[in-house]
Amino acid sequence: MFYRPEDGHGLPHNPFNAVVTPRPIGWVSTRGADGSENLAPYSFFNAVAYVPPQVMFASTSAKPDRGDTKDSMANVRDTGHFCINIVEYAMMDVMNTSSGPWDRDVDEFEKAGIEREDCATIPCSRVARAPANLECQLTQIVRLPGEANFVAFGEVTGVHLRDDCLVDGIFDITRYQPLSRLGYQDYTRVTDVFSLKRPGQ
User: Fold this and answer.
1) Contacts (Cβ under 8 Å, ≥6 apart) of 153
2) What is the pTM of this model?
3) Which residues have a Cβ under 8 Å from the Cβ of 96 and sit 6 or more positions away?
4) Mean per-residue pLDDT for 104-114?
5) How confident is the model at residue 201 (pLDDT cuts 50, 70, 90)?
6) The Flavin reductase like domain covers which part of the protein (predicted)?
7) How far is CA 125 from CA 31, 39, 52, 181, in A?
8) What's the pLDDT tens digit per position in 147-191?
9) Contacts of 16 (CB under 8 A, 6+ apart)
10) Which helix (H) or strand (E) holds 10?
11) How far apart are the C-alpha atoms of 164 and 187, rounded to whole Å?
12) 189, 178 in Cβ contact below 8 A?
């Protein structure tokens, strides 16, 4: 099968997200300029550089009460910082609750009953029991083609690692089983790990 996206795929559901999988989930916490808190998951998320460490997340739709984007991106645009909270399998239900189309004045930490703590390097909350948190200072927002497609890039200024996920100095993802996004309404979790050495190493 071949199709041009501009012509449509002719399938019951768009297969694009099912092709680019699995995708890590960036559970983005932000604090608005007015002090309001927001927490929402984004599966267009990844690390993009080592030195200095940098990450990105993309928002691809808009809300009527935010104009051209959603709460997370609007807060980042207003304040210049955000925190990426890593989602473990055990937190899938509360993560899913935080993904709802809630009004801008709804605090998803409270809505989903999620414990929060203050970040150390930015004025923002983080998910207290997440396996890891990446505190980020915004470096740039890039507008992509499309009505509401924005990408926020941030430099990581602080990293929290949950102690029970550290084994002999290694951050062991099997201890928490990262939740990942697939296509359609599907998710998966990482339970098995294997190593491959690059040629010449």
Assistant:
1) 48, 54, 55, 56, 138, 139, 140, 141, 142
2) 0.96
3) 41
4) 96
5) confident
6) 18-173
7) 7, 9, 22, 24
8) 999 999 999 999 999 999 999 999 999 999 999 999 999 999 999
9) 5, 183
10) none
11) 24
12) yes
Q: What is the DSSP letter of 191?
A: -
Q: How far apart are CA 24 and CA 19, in angstroms?
A: 14
What is 122-160 written as a DSSP string? SS-EEETT-SEEEEEEEEEEEEPSSSS-EEEEEEEEEEE
| Residues 125 and 109: beta-carbon distance below 8 Å | yes
Dihedral sign for Cα 7, 182, 170, 125, please.
positive
pLDDT digits (tens, 9 = 90+) for 20-71: 999 999 999 999 999 999 999 999 999 999 999 999 999 999 999 999 999 9
Dihedral sign, Cα of residue 1, residue 25, residue 70, residue 121: negative
Q: How far apart are CA 173 and CA 22, in angstroms?
A: 15
- What's 16-73 look like in SS3? HHHHCCCEECEEEEEECCCCCEEEEEECCEEEEECCCCEEEEEECCCCCCCCCCCHHH
